[in-house]
Amino acid sequence: MNMIARSPAQLGVTQHGVAEQLYARGYRALSKGDAITAERCFGVLVVLEAREERGWVGLGAAQEQQGRLGHAAAAYRLGTGFVPGSVWLRLGLGRALLRRGRLREAERAFDEAESLTSDAALLKLIEQEREET
């Protein structure tokens, strides 16, 4: 059979598989300081699977790493619309807003993050981020 005529499913390609590859590549890039590649990977990931929390967190983190705090805050905020129960997105939002000097909004994001968890380690992390003021 001609490879061009084959569908992605016939080639064994699934949306979930592509999403996992994008996440892995984005995470590796972010870990190596290649925030531009990471941003591209995570950006495609959130288009492919908008409810994928790791994609939104990665996108925001990549933008933070580039110093694009307004874009990072927007990514975290947009992600909360798709993953409303995400502590990590609110934590990232609070951090990005705090670094932009938007203290009231940052406090609100941190408060929302705290309200979504009872995990002691996460609560400690939120408090540490809050103390960066």
Care to give the gist of this entry?
The chain is an all-alpha fold.
* CATH homologous superfamily title: Tetratricopeptide repeat domain
CATH architecture assignment name: Alpha Horseshoe
CA radius of gyration is: 17 Å
Largest sheet: none
Q: Low-confidence parts, pLDDT < 50 over ≥5 residues?
A: none
Instruction: Please write the string of helix (H) and strand (E) elements.
Output: HHHHHHH
| Large-scale geometry | globular
Residues in β-strands, percent:
under 5%
Distance between the termini: 62 Å
Q: Give the domain tally.
A: 1
Q: How would you characterize this protein structure?
A:
The mean pLDDT is 93. This protein is mostly helical and 133 residues long. Helices cover 71% and strands 0% of the residues. It has one domain: Tetratricopeptide repeat domain (Serine Threonine Protein Phosphatase 5, Tetratricopeptide repeat, Alpha Horseshoe).
List keywords for this structure.
133 residues, mainly alpha, Serine Threonine Protein Phosphatase 5, Tetratricopeptide repeat, globular
Walk me through the topology.
Blueprint: H1 15-31, H2 35-48, H3 53-65, H4 69-82, H5 87-99, H6 103-115, H7 120-130
